[in-house]
Fold this sequence. Notes:
Elements: H1 11-21, H2 63-74, H3 78-82, H4 91-105, H5 109-115, H6 121-137
Amino acid sequence: xxxxxxxxxxxxxxxxxxxxxxxKLLSPPKPVSxxxxxxxxxxxxxxxxxxxxxxxxxxRFTMREIMDRIxxxxxxxxxxxxxxxxxxxxMLPRHAFFYWARRLTGKSYPQIxxxxxxxxxxxxxxxxxxxxxxxxxxGRHVRRLK
Length: 146
């Protein structure tokens, strides 16, 4: 079973991006909370790409692994993703988690929403539907499962 996900989740994926695109990776943000007046910048998430090459090929991932990888790639903590905060800078990582958790774990939306801070299944469903649209707006797309 083939699948595609974010290569920026792995060190090998980051090294491949550096080689192919000669891009200087953004350093993770300092552990200070973001300024309230500053709007969410899509450039912050520019290096979250749409191909995933896991170190070991396997069919299922745990929701914890997916959340940790997305948090690391987006420069936030997994606790921030699970928090009740509605800050704009957390929406893309949270929606990415909903999308990839559904796609890679096979869990139901109520299970995914419950894992992500006790959210409703419709919240998880909305995030999973919106994420590919946000990626297209950023000039990237999510590949379909084969």
